[in-house]
Amino acid sequence: MKISIIGAGYVGLVTGTCLADSGNEVACLDNDPEKIAALRQGEVPIYEPGLTELIKNNARAGRLRFTDDPAKAVAGARCIFICVGTPQRDDGSANLEYVRACCLEIAPHLAEDAIVVVKSTVPVGANRQVASWLKEAAGRDIATASNPEFLKEGAAIDDFTKPDRVVVGADSEDVVAVLAGDESVPLLVVEELHCARRHVGIPFDYADPNARPALLSLRNFETKSLSGRLGDRTSTPQDSPE
What confidence tens digit (pLDDT) does each residue in 32-60 have? Predict the structure, then answer.
């Protein structure tokens, strides 16, 4: 798959490099020309065990490249991961200006079937705003999804390649199918649980024991359907926390 990563910081570099290492064609976009030049030379601005070697190997193999040109970065890409910073404002709220700027910058160049995936740390309701910014700049609706990251510094590569959970939030089954990828992985599909829909924005992993107490507090929400895909691929929440 052709993939674009917007933001060559910690999350962007780990995500892009690991996706390239699994066989995808990845372009990393950053608006800092000096950083891009350094990355092209194999100089990595962050330290994460094993990351520098992975970047060099995948760059040599032609699966990973770095650019400061938005049009070149997203041309023909099926999935575009937004990994830019959302620094805290003085009032404690998240500053989404970088997210907005990259949406406006990339939207005119996106393919018809592109999916924009937000990995940046954003507040509830941000994906609706992302969809609005993309439509503003592209003049059409663009598929969006949320895929929060669970990466620990010092163990980020293992966390990405051997995750204990992958959370995807989207309002389209087609988008979820593309992001799920490997049909052998266990999936829990929440079709109409109101608290987990994009307009409320509270995605979490029901298979995670730490989420079970939270699940109990959500029992009063109207649930139309809570089911997995095809038999034993479904994970069922427990009735009580362990």
Answer: 999 999 999 999 999 999 999 999 999 99
Torsion of CA 202, 227, 173, 220, to 10 degrees: -30
Whole-prediction pTM: 0.77
**Would strands 2-6 and 115-118 be described as parallel, antiparallel, or unpaired?**
unpaired
- Is the Cβ–Cβ distance between 102 and 82 less than 8 Å? yes
Give all strands (DSSP E) within 45-160, no chain letters. 64-67, 79-82, 115-118, 143-146
Which has the closest alpha carbon to 17: 34, 31, 44?
44
Give me the DSSP letters along 152-209.
-TTSHHHHHHS-S----B-S-HHHHHHHH--TTS-B-EESSBGGGSTTT-----TTSG
If DSSP codes are grouped into helix, strand and coil, which group holds residue 233?
helix
**Displacement of CA 158 from its chain's centroid (Å):** 17
Encode pLDDT of 122-135 as tens digits: 888 888 999 999 99
pLDDT-derived band at 164 (thresholds 50, 70, 90) equals: confident
Residue 18, number of CB atoms within 10 A of its CB: 21
Between the alpha carbon of residue 131 and those of residues 81, 103, 112, 219, the distances in Å are: 14, 9, 14, 30
How far is it, in rounded angstroms, from Cα 63 to Cα 56?
A: 10
What domains does the chain contain, in order, with CATH numbers? 2-181 (3.40.50.720), 184-242 (no CATH)
